[in-house]
Amino acid sequence: MKSYYIHYSIVVVCLVLTSCSKYFEVNTNDVLTEKDYGQETNELYSGYMGVAAKMQALADQTVFLSDLRTDLLEPTANAPQDLWDLYNYKEKKGNTFANPRTYYDLIVNANAYLEKIRSYRKANPKALEDEHYNALISGTIRFKVWTYLTLGKLYGKVAYFDDSKIDLDNLSSIPVISLNELLPKLVALMEIGVDGVDGKYVANWGNILFPGVATNQQDLTWNMICPSPEPLLMELYLWTKQYTKVVDIGIRFIYDNGSNKFKVSNDDYNGEWVQVFTRDPITRTRVLMNIVPYDFERNQTNRLMQFFSNQSPSLYYLRPTAAAMRRYQEQIRYDGHTLGDQYRGENYTYFLQNGAWVIRKFSRDRESASEIYKNNVHIVIYRDADIHFFMIEALNNLGMFDQAEALLNDGVELYLSRNAGNLKYPFDNAAMNVSLARNWGIRRRVNLAPVHPEGVSRDDLSTTEKVDAYKKALDKLVVEETLMESAGEAKAYFAMMRIADRWNDPTILADIVAKKYSEGQTNQIRQYLLDRNHWFVQYPLN
């Protein structure tokens, strides 16, 4: 027992004190090697943090690659040629933003960590408790699965490998598989895992690292750094069209034993909505599930402030497009007649700064020239709205339109009152409904009126063709809403791709993206994007 606490004392000191702040700094050229793993149990924890640290290098790259491909962003005159090439679909080898090395770097390190911890456990079967071993294995699996999924969504194909002894300068020697071929492999990793440990095991890191100590900030940050199994599985099942599984997992997850978390409720209504992106993440756990944290005081920063702000010393490389801002301006509020997205539009998602439009979503805490570069901007992996959008898509494609529209529009509370005596799954559990009734819906939370498919009638769904038309129209509303709700979060482009692919209709993506280009480019870009192969970042692996 004494040795147990000595081990954890070492871990705690290394994680908390600034003298060990390099535990979360990233050199993307590093690969964990044999000498990095001693025979002490504590090094297994630092090794796990080494895998987690790799997320910091790729999180902002994911935002730039995906949201530059929606209609949200366009380069400014300050932007380097590499960003302009991405914008114009002319990326080539050597493009620093298009290079997928940071993603493969994490995968190599995850593979190495899985090999080493399994070898250590075999040699020292009693050195590590089952709870800790399972948590470390399962968390590493999820880091790997999330990263491979992100690679697949961005590039359309991946070099897939489980070996840790891979030369990142020679990835072309690895067999390449498509996104559709990748998805079953990732589902299997989550469901079956490695050596009897799957990707669904969740531990309270506060209890592991700080046994007997009251919850504090460091505990909660540890609990947020790894993708949670529920949203990750929901996204995988959505891509593989296993819609019932999405709903089954989602309803239990947002219920959360009756807690006040993840409900899309008015707890974080009005100005509170934007604070989840700008305030200390542990104060916003009603909304936030998983994040990539950064700490200016430990020399950990991402590039969102540099690229989005035009306040010195920022670089102002990317700005919101007229097409994206117009979407917010055209929204109808809950009163039924006032125009403008009141809490996600101007002054929240974007605003006029120094005479030019900038993305503001991540900078509201510190915006003066002397302070803006100090913003500790965390990047969201999963939050409440993501889970709801997954459920809306799944419910819609199961033909459960009332339930889908409740989550999209004005919430579970009003669904329950309107359908009293005729409640349908997943809102047919009286005990769960007491808690779920707090849900206000994606649009009502930000004071916007409900939206419904146009050109198709819920009163006449007498044929399969009419039902499918309604599903497709509602899916397109999900695309529009995700573009506004999840702007700058690396979510909307993937939803757009998934839905366009589901209906075999590339115009769902092409029509939206093309509108942000100049009049001379609009048709050219639209025609280019009608080919699904052109949705993905083009970058050779050799």
Automatic annotation (TrEMBL):
SUPFAM superfamilies: TPR-like. InterPro entries: TPR-like_helical_dom_sf. This is RagB/SusD family nutrient uptake outer membrane protein. It comes from Sphingobacterium zeae. The lineage of its organism: Bacteria, Pseudomonadati, Bacteroidota, Sphingobacteriia, Sphingobacteriales.
